[in-house]
Amino acid sequence: MEESRIVTIFGGSGFIGRHLVKRLAQRGWGIRVAVRDPEAAQFLKPLGGTAQIVPRKVSVTNPAEVAEAVAGASAVVNLVGILYQRGARTFERIHVEGAATVAKAAAAAGAKRFVQMSAIGADPDSPAEYGRTKAAGEAAVQAAFPGASIVRPSVVFGPEDDFFNRFAVLARFLPALPVFDVSFQPVYVGDVADAIDAILEDPATAAKTYALGGPRVITFRELMQIVLRETGRERWLLPIPLAIAEIEALFLELLPVPPLTRDQVKLLSQDNVVDAGALTLADLGITATALEAIVPTYLQRFRPPTDQRRRLEEKKEAGR
Ligand SMILES: NC(=O)c1ccc[n+]([C@@H]2O[C@H](COP(=O)([O-])OP(=O)(O)OC[C@H]3O[C@@H](n4cnc5c(N)ncnc54)[C@H](OP(=O)(O)O)[C@@H]3O)[C@@H](O)[C@H]2O)c1
């Protein structure tokens, strides 16, 4: 008898989740998406072929809800993560306890495969609590589900990303964009989805950790230059020392959705790139997609109206 191919995806309504739902549905998986707001996740249905949205609220902090969502699943993917803490939504609760709850439930339900989404920078000694709790989440998952595979992306880009879109919006309103002395290895969301797909298809990937990065390491300054070029804006690039950024973050943290937190500033003190010797996209048979091939396609919408752009080009020409 053919084994069931049902995958429960936690965090399937997020940026990476929606691409993963689409990819795994194309590969013939029966998709079950567990979310806190099933109504708001209905948009996934046309993407996911036969995708089912668990009709009741599922939070990774609730073991009973999680157990119900994984019943009968042959594979489980946990994408749930947060960038800042609010009230009871702490890094410890979501990244560590939540991940452990999902992994324990998957093991108890007899799932064969488990993929845990972590991040480059996951390290018990990370200066940031985000990085420390991502590492503790990995350890909790491995203890509960020993064959779990872990994926650690650098910053992920794609049409709905939080990084390029955010700076493209800022470039509209601000006279300058900030520059931090740090490098990233941005990876395409489609490649991240392909990586999880490849892991689920190959039992030899069990208990392994993959660091996912794009084809090249790019400085923050160059990333801002790309944003300005692709959105057709001329803005200053303002280097910000981390000590100053930390003071700014103290105030920005008070906003309902903080654009920068002190913990994120701590993350910026270390390059976010694939370590030499790590297993990577290439080990999964995937050729990393260049940022230049994708980012212009979705930053175009931030360009100023054509006449404004023409004026800009004329100004540049006159200055040559
Ligand atoms: N994007 C990147 O550049 C990047 C880089 C490295 C690592 N990662 C990791 O990749 C994962 C996905 O990132 P993303 O960019 O797709 O994030 P995202 O768009 O914010 O998605 C996060 C998902 O988690 C769900 N979620 C949050 N709290 C939950 C809870 N208590 N119970 C159940 N679901 C909950 C959210 O659903 P709700 O609608 O219910 O909030 C959402 O579907 C995260 O673990 C993140 O740390 C992302």
From TrEMBL:
Pfam family, one: Epimerase
InterPro entries linked: ComplexI_NDUFA9_subunit (IPR051207), Epimerase_deHydtase (IPR001509), NAD(P)-bd_dom_sf (IPR036291)
Entry superkingdom: Bacteria
Domain NAD-dependent epimerase/dehydratase as annotated: residue spans: 7-212
An example molecular function term from Gene Ontology annotations: protein-containing complex binding
CDD domains reported for this sequence: NDUFA9_like_SDR_a (cd05271)
Protein name from the UniProt record: 3-beta hydroxysteroid dehydrogenase
Annotated organism of origin: Candidatus Defluviicoccus seviourii
